[in-house]
Amino acid sequence: MAILRGQSPLQRDSATGLQLPQWDLSPVPPRVAPQQDLGYAAPHNPNSLPSPDCLETTMYQPFNEQFAAATRQFADTAAQVNRLALDNAEAVFGLQLSAIEDRVNATFAFLGEAAEIRDFDGFKNLWPKGSQVARENFERGVATGQEVFGRTLKTQGAITDLAKSQFEAAARGVQGEVEKTVQAATAAASKPSAK
Q1: Axis crossing angle, helix 61-115 with helix 120-190, rounded to the nearest 10
Q2: Domain boundaries, the chain
Q3: 85: burial class by Cβ within 10 Å (0-12, 13-18, 19+)?
Q4: pLDDT tens digits, residue range 81-97?
Q5: Any idea where the Phasin domain is (predicted)?
Q6: What is the pLDDT of residues 8-39, one digit of tens each?
Q7: What does the alpha-carbon distance between residue 63 and residue 65 come to, in Å, rounded to a whole number?
Q8: Element (H, E) at 10
Q9: What is the distance between the alpha carbons of residues 45 and 54, in angstroms, rounded to a whole number?
Q10: pTM score, two decimals?
């Protein structure tokens, strides 16, 4: 927090003759969360000052550890999913690029033949070749589309299996924690109460 120095907020600069504000820029530590300091005490309870040698774990520590583990697991899973998706995209792009290259080569070969024709009989022979090139291009396009679809389905299946395994692992972890809690509650309930 900046605090004005001197009697007047504006003081005259001797070099330029201008009136400039003078700010006290001495470092003041921020007091954002005083409860995190060792010297913090609740105003309603003066005896709440913690001892410096007592480093207890907070009641939220198990939750924080579980959250950190779940976040780490999520990040690992997301990285695996991204790797699978990028591998699939690379393969699909390669398939489509090679299919386009084959179609372009066939089309330009046909156009090269068409450019060399000089008579009517050549045009009559060109018509079946043109329909054959168009049919082959269409078949290549359909075959490439089917292969792309198959690869994408396979990748989606791998991603689904990965997600399913992560859910199952999380369910096993939660089930283990529930069983521990139930056993602890049963043990506590079966202890004879001292009255």
Answers
A1: 170
A2: 62-172
A3: middle
A4: 999 999 999 999 999 99
A5: 65-167
A6: 456 666 666 666 666 555 555 555 555 555 55
A7: 5
A8: strand 10-12
A9: 18
A10: 0.54
